[in-house]
Design goal:
Elements (H helix, E strand, L loop, with lengths): L7 E9 L2 E9 L8 E5 L7 E5 L7 E2 L5 E6 L3 E9 L9 E8 L5 H18 L2 E6 L3 E6 L4 E2 L7 E7 L8 E8 L4 E6 L3 E3 L7 E9 L6 E9 L5 E5 L1 E5 L7 E10 L12 E2 L19 E5 L13
Antiparallel strand pairs: 1-7, 2-6, 2-8, 3-5, 3-7, 4-6, 8-22, 9-10, 9-12, 10-21, 11-20, 12-15, 13-14, 13-16, 16-19, 17-18, 17-20
Length: about 300
């Protein structure tokens, strides 16, 4: 195919790491007179292979929707050139390079990163067992409401379970109960409060202790009868109603690493007939292919060992 000399063109250089990629022509500002994208190797590298779709150009992405596969045995440079031969055309376009296969060298790194994320999730995942008036023991995962705005019921006692508590971290819990039941203190895995005495909690204090506690924070919301939801975050939380006599009718707790944003869930707590063994749910974020949007008119070059 003979190509006219372009009236305008724009160059963009990139470096791809070892692996398999999909190069896609995503979009252009104008559906008509969109630029063609030439994909060149300068200098030519026999270890990088361009594989076009059947019936399409082996060196150009002609229009949005076109794509080609790039197979790189070793890291190397690619040059993309957006060009138009129309006076009304544009040289702006969006092209996206997506890694579709990680090489053997990068897979162990990805696995180690995933294992690190799982370890952090394990250490931060807590669950809360609460004895709720007229419902018995209720178990909630971190970030889930026990009772709360949608179903306010008096909470008479709680137990915070943290099976994989990090070394150097401790947790203390102190509660005050009505009907003359007094105050109760407990640590992680211990119950604080009462059962079957109709003595609702009227105050709650939680604190992270130990030399490593500075790496973690508590975040919580508490609802007392007739009052607004109170939200707190820090190494120490203290909740009570306006007069100190209102029953606690909703609670949501979570442990997060310092400086991170908590992810609260709206799933209701689960009623349980007996006190079960500690239960941990691990929520993982499993990334898909590493995709990096790229505007042709941006002047950016990626590091060889990371693709783009």
């Amino acid at each position: 195919m003979t190509r006219l000399r372009p009236l305008a063109e724009r160059h963009h250089a990139m470096v791809v790491g070892r692996g398999l990629y999909l190069l896609r022509y995503v979009s252009a500002p104008l559906d008509k007179d969109c630029p063609s994208i030439a994909v060149n190797q300068r200098p030519v590298n026999d270890d990088i292979t361009l594989i076009a779709a059947p019936g399409r150009s082996a060196t150009h992405l002609e229009m949005p929707g076109d794509c080609m596969v790039i197979r790189a045995e070793t890291p190397g440079p690619l040059s993309l050139i957006a060009a138009t031969d129309s006076p009304d055309g544009t040289i702006d376009a969006e092209v996206r390079l997506e890694r579709i296969f990680a090489t053997a060298e990068t897979q162990p790194v990805a696995r180690r990163a995933a294992e690190t994320r799982r370890t952090v999730a394990d250490r931060q995942q807590i669950s809360i067992l609460a004895h709720v008036s007229r419902r018995g023991d209720v178990l909630a995962d971190a970030g889930e409401w026990i009772c709360g705005p949608d179903m306010p019921l008096p909470i008479e006692g709680i137990e915070i379970r943290w099976p994989n508590m990090p070394d150097g971290v401790g947790l203390s819990c102190s509660v005050a109960s009505g009907r003359g039941a007094g105050k109760h203190a407990a640590g992680a895995g211990e119950f604080a409060g009462t059962r079957g005495k109709a003595a609702s909690l009227t105050a709650l204090e939680l604190a992270l202790t130990g030399p490593a506690s500075r790496d973690y924070e508590l975040t919580g919301e508490a609802l007392f009868l007739g009052a607004a939801i109170a939200s707190q975050r820090g190494r120490k939380l203290s909740f009570a109603g306006p007069t100190g006599r209102e029953p606690l009718v909703g609670l949501r707790l979570e442990v997060v690493q310092s400086g991170t944003k908590p992810v609260s869930k709206t799933k209701p707590a689960t009623a349980i007939p007996t006190r079960p063994a500690g239960k941990v749910r691990i929520y993982r974020s499993i990334p898909g292919a590493a995709a990096s949007p790229m505007l042709i008119d941006q002047n950016a070059t990626a590091a060889p060992d990371r693709g783009i």
